[in-house]
What does this fold into?
Amino acid sequence: MQEIKFNQLEKIEQELVNEAKKVMKTAYNPYSNFYVGAALLSQKGKIITGSNVENAAYSSTICAERAALLRANALGIRKFETIAIIAKGENFDTAQITGPCGNCRQMLFESSQISNKDMKIILSTTKKDKIIITSIKELLPLAFGPKDLEMNIKKYQK
It folds into this structure.
């Protein structure tokens, strides 16, 4: 993991953080009042965003990272370079970065196997004053995915 300043990010990475922050405002979060936005960068340079969607049946809640992955899949996009994640409370900015939950880490790992790339993950506080650069392999060491099952995933890599 590496902590850097916002202005040290590449321009496309700054755009990802900004898009994640923008989409965070669309969160449906009546239970937690916690806003999360995610912005994926496809290997072809397209940005796909998602925000968290909560549900009274708490286990049915969809995190922003998974919302972005599902939206990308619906668009036929499955190969990614990077994801930016940002979060805030109802009445407060985050002082620390918010990392993806375990379910999101697993889905990001599977996407990274489909992408043949250790996906870069940018985690940012709301004010963008603390940014951590990491990767899915760093956040989910010894992970298990379709390649470990010797699955043929070529048809999903288009």
Observations:
- The helical segments are 11-24, 64-74, 102-115, 136-139.
- The domain at 2-156 is CATH 3.40.140.10 (Cytidine Deaminase; domain 2).
- Strands lie at 2-4, 34-42, 47-51, 80-89, 120-124, 131-135.
